[in-house]
Amino acid sequence: MREYTTQMDAARKGIATPQMKIVAEKEKMQLEELMGYMAEGKVVIPANINHQCINPEGVGSMLRTKINVNLGVSRDCKDYDIELQKVMSAVNMGAEAIMDLSSHGNTEPFRKKLTSECPAMIGTVPVYDSVIHYQRDLSTLTAEDFIDVVRLHAQNGVDFVTLHCGITRKTIDQIKNHKRKMNIVSRGGSLVFAWMSMTGNENPFYEYYDEILDICEEYDVTISLGDACRPGCLADATDVCQIEELVRLGELTKRAWEHNVQVMVEGPGHVPLDQIAANMQVQKTICMGAPFYVLGPLVTDIAPGYDHITAAIGGAVAAMNGAAFLCYVTPAEHLALPNVEDVKQGIIASKIAAHAADIAKGIKGARDIDDKMADARRVLDWDAQFECAIDGGTAKAIRDSRKPEDDHSDTCSMCGKFCAVRSMNKALNGEYIDIL
Fold it and tell me: Quick one: which residues bind substrate (predicted)?
């Protein structure tokens, strides 16, 4: 029998787990320092005891910024093989987490396949699965039904679950009285809101939170406290609904820590660029440094088809100011289910944002690859440049498709022999610089 229940429990007892040792090495951090952050709740290692093939990662503002990819089957996209193709593509491109948001069919086999084969962290939103699992309408489900699905996902090996625990019956009055432009845009949050509205009962994830904590402690499932009231447009950013829910999430974070359950806190959403840093600071204060997991944030509402870019802009600023985990956004956001190419574009944009933030934060070793790229560019070593690139395949394809007329390896087609790097190398070597 293990001497500890969760990674947090182990850290508090001074026990270095295999997962901690792997994460400490990845992060170039002293093991004792990592364990100190974990004992405080400022770093989590989501690693369900039943997810045996996981390659563990740490999530915390003092670590490398991590990327999550949302996938899953739905009524309009039922092909599990395509979703698995997206999963493996995402993992190969460096995504540290996969969230299975399946909302159609028999979801358990796909979920179990993920936790038996995928090395990335696996997350789910159990409230989505409740209607599908029981094949009953929302209003007929009981609080016990919802809790049983949380237990099922934990048994299946899921590393973190998004639970919308912070929305309560008081929120119903707030939404009605404050007249948001976009009301609730969280899918899970809207389902909980609808269930409360139809049944007259309190949010089961809030009312039976202690029972959920017992489940999470047993299987070492990290709770990702969902932000049901995240803003769905710039006009709703940082309003009373969002902030009051965040205060409640801070209280729930503390209660989870008392059970040695690891916690992440989810955040906005659509936020104007000038409000992002303040949002991060407020969260860090209210939630006592628990890792912040943000969707975007998207910094404008008018870029459908390009929301991977609006999210990358916001994500870079958010991570630079303390967000630990970025949920990717694809070009299909607000429009359609993402295809394989959309998934790739979303991951690349998020990785750029995460990497830029890590450099700004001074994460140890973050800029090493950029310095290698600069060295490769100085000597016009194209193969080395492709190796350093976030997406070397695309970079090489562009270069190969538009090579200079004379196919010189020491020039690019943009500048030809006017290339500044070529001219400087020749000048500094005392060589003749031919242009014409």
Answer: 70, 99, 128, 164, 186-188, 227-230, 266, 293
Q: Answer yes or no: is 128 a known binding residue.
A: yes
The reply, when asked if residue 164 is annotated as ligand binding, is yes
Give 267's strand partners: 294
All domains of the chain, ordered by start, with CATH?
Answer: 7-361 (3.20.20.540), 365-401 (no CATH), 403-435 (no CATH)
188 among annotated binding-site residues: yes
Tens of pLDDT, residue by residue over 122-163, are 999 999 999 889 999 999 999 999 999 999 999 999 999 999
Instruction: Say if residue 77 carries a ligand binding annotation.
Output: no
Which pLDDT value is given to residue 7? 98
336 known ligand binder: no
pLDDT in tens, 344-383: 999 999 999 999 999 999 999 999 999 999 999 999 999 9
Residue 413, annotated as binding a ligand: no
Confidence of residue 426 (pLDDT cuts 50, 70, 90): very high
> And the tokens for 324?
């630990």
Residue 233, annotated as binding a ligand: no
CA distances from 86 to 37, 56, 381, 434 (A): 33, 20, 32, 49
Residue 377 assigned ligand-binding role: no
Q: Is 415 annotated as a binding residue?
A: yes
d(CA 267, CA 283): 8
